[in-house]
Structures are given as structure tokens and as C-alpha cells.
Amino acid sequence: MHGAPATFPALARAYRTWALTHPHMHRLINDRPLNRTRLPVGLDDRAGAPLVAAYDGDRDTARAAWATIKGLVDLELADRFPPTPTSPPSTPRLPGPGARGRINQ
User: Fold this and answer.
1) In a structure prediction context, what are the per-residue pLDDT tens digits for the chain, which is 105 residues long?
2) N- to C-terminal Cα separation, the chain
3) CA 1 to chain centre
4) Is residue 99 a contact partner of residue 89, using CB atoms and an 8 Å limit?
5) Closest CA to 8 of 51, 48, 44, 49
6) C-alpha atoms less than 13 angstroms from C-alpha of 89 in its C-beta half-sphere
7) Are 49 and 1 in contact (CB under 8 A)?
8) I need a surface site. Which of 14, 15, 94, 95 has the fewest CB within 10 A?
9) What is d(CA 85, CA 79) in angstroms, rounded to the nearest whole number?
10) Is the pTM here over 0.85, yes or no?
């Protein structure tokens, strides 16, 4: 995707910023079942390509990373995080490409 951020932290920040700026649109897009039979062939792969590329082609790790940021954004939109001195919550630090089971320092 042309112009998409190239790293997971950049993708996560862009997604979170958009979701917090457009909470109703975020819910409309994400909170209902998706009938994949109505999607153009290859759309899922094209949409996920920047995230998979950020994880050097590792689709499983990319999917886990996406599920994490998606879940955290959903919790933030539902006001489920307690207030902290660093509110709003920062982007989580997840394993980067090749990290395999360790959290980036």
C-alpha cells in the first residue's frame, strides 16, 4: 500500500490515532461480521500487506500484533483503562521482526 507506515509502531500509532479521531466509524467498520464472499479477490492480502511486511513476511506474528493493537484500541474506546500519569496509553512494545518471543527493549 502506497504511503502506509513501514513499521509496526508506526502502523499502530496511525491506526490508534484514526480510531480515536473517528470512534463511530471505527465501530461501524469493526464491530459487525464481515461477509468475505463480497470482498474483491485479494483484498485481505492487500490490506494486510504493510503489517505483514513490517514483520518480514511472518503472517502469524503480524496477525498477533494486529490483534493486540486492535484489542487495546477497543478497550481504550470503551474507556476501560484506568487513569495513569502517562494517559493516554502509549503504543505497546511488541516483538519486532525476528524477535521470536521476546519484547523489544
Assistant:
1) 566 667 888 888 889 999 999 999 999 988 889 898 999 999 989 988 988 998 899 999 999 999 999 999 999 899 887 776 665 555 555 555 554 443 333
2) 29
3) 15
4) no
5) 51
6) 19
7) yes
8) 14
9) 16
10) no
